[in-house]
Amino acid sequence: MLKSCLVVLSLAAAARAEDAAAETARWLVHESNWGYLTYAGSAEVLSLSDGAVDASTGRLWFYVMGWSGGESYVASLTLSQAALSGMTCNNTDPEDPRCAKLTIAGKMVKATGGAAALGKAALFARHPQMQKWPAGHDFGVWELVPSDLWMIDFYGGASLIDPKAYLAATPRHNVPGWGQEARLAAAAPKASVAGAAPPPWNHTAARARWLVYHAIWGSVGTHSVRLHQPWGNVRSVADGVGANSSGLPVLYLPTPDPTAIDVRADPNVTLSFSEAALPERLSPSGAVCGGMVAEDPTCARLHMAGRLRALRAPAELAQAKIDLGARHPLAPWLAKGGAHTGGIYYKIELDSLTFLDFYGGAAQLSVEEFLAAKSPKSME
Fold this sequence. Notes:
By secondary structure, the protein is an alpha+beta fold. The chain has 2 domains: 19-167, Pnp Oxidase, Chain A (Roll); 186-379, Electron Transport, Fmn-binding Protein, Chain A (Pnp Oxidase, Chain A). The protein is 26% helix and 27% strand. The longest helix has 30 residues, at 2-31. The protein starts with a helix and ends with a helix.
């Protein structure tokens, strides 16, 4: 009898945990204004909406310009609590398990009829600027239909959330804890923020280097071993400190992390960064990118395609730990050998890059020009 009761209680606890995860996923989607969309061979920074501020639907709507790749395609959307207003994530690092990160995999579908009208209303309610985007640019409403939701919002590994449970949940930020989280966060060292203005938009290489230098996190796009489709994941990064800036970010992947598993099978990745993720670019009112939405061309974004190379040489490992430690004081494990599960430090070997920071399409910028640009610190 006692054993049966314990089983029932255990199942009830598991059900509550699943409900809490679905609610937190809905909360993060509703609070997010933008994310990284990863698809075959590339990535985008897209603004999103699941409804007006007071009308969450859980459905993921986007306003995409001139897509010519068919009426649907597989993709994944990567969201981070670190991108929300204030961008402090309760004084934790973007890679800290307590800073919620969510990857939603599924199919991007071009909306028509009533679905298109519903999506456009949701997008315009959240992003009024979109109503003024040029009609001649062939913007259309797209919806990401989820088939898999993967989330980390506390210690203990990821939650896999059933799409039906996600859509049925009420948006709610459930914060698990051990009773000491607030004290630990309050005692944590504060990350330094440099408020230097970016180089002018037409100083292309310098502005791209500036974005990489100031970014402390981004999305790592891989081909998922588990799902057999493009996938993205939040990782903390550092490209050096001061004159040591190289333009080539280093990152740490714990051994059981899905991105680490993917990279071991195929090291080709896309690292994506957005100016909308930089705390120093917030206005006093909390607006990103001078009040423009993250998808606006004047809100710089960079996608770096290449291969992740495991760092083995003692000098490279030592420098990676120094750089990550300097840029991530809220995640001291990054500078002290990584996670308790083991892991590897990586650096990207860059093949190509796509950079957008103004109207007129992607900038003409070669890898050689990017790497030859002056260290952003030396320009301040």
